[in-house]
């Protein structure tokens, strides 16, 4: 078997580490070309040495000397800066795992797409903020986008062998997060530790808080809209606390296909890594008899307004999804640092959307500019609210 060459952007994060785990268990299938991180120089260097990567890129330039020291005597080149990140994304690897968190992922994802690579896309911000730009570029450059987010990966799996024109609706399942049964009053006093304690999934802090507000599901609606080309009215959200069904596709004939599995990100990651084949994973196998019951309920938009706010941003289009995403990132960071309360996250996003009325971004540079302006506004709004 010829080995698939792979670069992992964001190799030290939650998705990045799970990807490395799978790649390192299958040295006969994968050859690592490049790895990147922002600051975690120790893990980056260790992974580069273990996998025999040719390039290791660290985001923080002050850490380049340490990376060089740690890689001394190996054949791995240490680098920093946006050109090096673009090289990791668009270099010789056939498959690029895009697992950087936030808008920092946009430029490298676009570089991989413009180089016509297969992109395993975990960085949901790419589709949320620049969905049309990314999908159009993928068509132009013959790139393939494989969704890694478990819901979109589930839908992608259900669509195999089917025609997109036969879809009647997509149903994104949501666990409801750690605050599924809490009142708004109870949520008001929630701490960062409580918000990141997701009942089913082990994930990075930012996305865990997004699950608690349900903004994550709102971002995923926008992601699904761009990946599968369906309008808001044909995208539904269903609360399913066990996180066993990862999403469903309803077809015009009334058939519903679902993808099931234990909540372990290594399953959707493995699907993207091995696609169009499959590979073994160490994930626990699903035992439905032990689980017993699968439950479903409608989302409560009064207790979780983020879902509606995100849907409205999707329907408004133009710059609204960029504003939604940027204001949310800033507010989640402030919440994690203890600067604002839990309910103020979505209040900040709503207010930012009300105040920012900008034209549709025409390029990634436009998206990054709107993102930067929104961050400044969101910080001002949080100071106003605190005063
Ligand atoms: N975690 C999940 O289960 C999950 C599920 C579905 C989708 N996603 C999506 O996947 C993406 C990654 O999530 P995650 O949970 O893996 O995040 P994470 O654990 O926070 O890891 C983020 C990765 O990106 C790197 N990074 C952060 N800021 C950067 C910057 N400015 N420039 C370059 N690299 C940067 C980090 O490096 P350092 O370690 O050096 O900081 C780390 O390698 C997100 O878009 C998330 O929404 C995640």
Automatic annotation (TrEMBL):
1-deoxy-D-xylulose 5-phosphate binds at residues 124, 150-151, 175, 198, 211, 216-217, 220. Residues 6-131 form the 1-deoxy-D-xylulose 5-phosphate reductoisomerase N-terminal domain. Pathway: Isoprenoid biosynthesis; isopentenyl diphosphate biosynthesis via DXP pathway; isopentenyl diphosphate from 1-deoxy-D-xylulose 5-phosphate: step 1/6. NADPH binds at residues 12-15, 38-40, 123, 125, 204. One of its GO terms (molecular function) is 1-deoxy-D-xylulose-5-phosphate reductoisomerase activity. Mn(2+) binds at residues 149, 151, 220. Residues 260-376 form the DXP reductoisomerase C-terminal domain. Residues 145-228 form the 1-deoxy-D-xylulose 5-phosphate reductoisomerase C-terminal domain. The keyword Metal-binding applies. It comes from the Bacteria. Pfam families: DXP_redisom_C, DXP_reductoisom, DXPR_C. The keyword Metal-binding applies. Its EC number is 1.1.1.267. InterPro entries: DXP_reductoisomerase (IPR003821), DXP_reductoisomerase_C (IPR013644), DXP_reductoisomerase_N (IPR013512), DXPR_C (IPR026877), DXPR_C_sf (IPR036169), NAD(P)-bd_dom_sf (IPR036291). Keywords: Isoprene biosynthesis, Magnesium, Manganese, Metal-binding, NADP, Oxidoreductase. Belongs to the DXR family. HAMAP family: DXP_reductoisom. Catalyzes the NADPH-dependent rearrangement and reduction of 1-deoxy-D-xylulose-5-phosphate (DXP) to 2-C-methyl-D-erythritol 4-phosphate (MEP). This is 1-deoxy-D-xylulose 5-phosphate reductoisomerase. The gene is dxr.
């Amino acid at each position: 078997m010829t080995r698939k060459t792979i670069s992992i952007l964001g190799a030290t994060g939650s998705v990045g580490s799970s990807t490395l785990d799978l790649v390192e268990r299958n040295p006969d299938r994968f050859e690592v070309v490049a790895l990147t991180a922002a600051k975690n120089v120790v893990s980056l260097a260790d992974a580069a040495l273990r996998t025999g990567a040719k390039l290791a890129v660290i985001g923080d330039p002050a850490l380049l000397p340490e990376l060089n020291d740690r890689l001394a005597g190996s054949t791995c080149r240490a680098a920093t800066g946006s050109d090096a990140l673009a090289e990791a994304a668009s270099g010789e690897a056939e498959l690029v795992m895009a697992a950087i968190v936030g808008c920092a992922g946009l430029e490298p994802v676009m570089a991989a797409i413009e180089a016509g690579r297969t992109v395993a896309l975990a960085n949901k911000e790419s589709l949320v903020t620049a969905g049309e730009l990314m999908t159009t570029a993928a068509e132009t450059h013959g790139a393939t986008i494989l969704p890694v987010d478990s819901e979109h990966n589930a839908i992608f799996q259900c669509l195999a062998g089917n025609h997109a024109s036969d879809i009647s609706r997509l149903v994104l399942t949501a666990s409801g997060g750690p605050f599924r049964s809490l009142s708004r009053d109870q949520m008001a006093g929630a701490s960062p530790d409580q918000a990141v304690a997701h009942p089913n999934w082990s994930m990075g802090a930012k996305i865990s808080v997004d699950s608690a507000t349900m903004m994550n599901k709102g971002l995923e609606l926008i992601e699904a809209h761009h990946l599968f080309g369906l309008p808001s009215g044909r995208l539904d959200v269903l609360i399913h606390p066990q996180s066993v069904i990862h999403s469903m596709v309803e077809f015009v004939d009334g058939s519903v296909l679902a993808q099931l599995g234990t909540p372990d990100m290594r399953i959707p990651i493995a699907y993207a890594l091995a696609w169009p084949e499959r590979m073994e994973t160490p994930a626990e196998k699903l035992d439905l008899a032990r689980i017993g019951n699968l439950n479903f309920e409608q989302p409560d938009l009064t207790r979780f307004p983020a879902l509606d706010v995100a849907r409205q941003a999707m329907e408004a289009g133009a710059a609204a999804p960029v504003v939604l995403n940027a204001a949310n990132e800033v507010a989640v960071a402030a919440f994690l640092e203890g600067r604002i309360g839990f309910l103020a996250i979505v209040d900040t996003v709503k207010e930012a959307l009300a105040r920012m009325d900008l034209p549709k971004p025409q390029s990634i540079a436009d998206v990054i500019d709107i993102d930067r302006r929104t961050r400044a506004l969101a910080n001002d709004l949080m100071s106003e609210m605190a005063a």
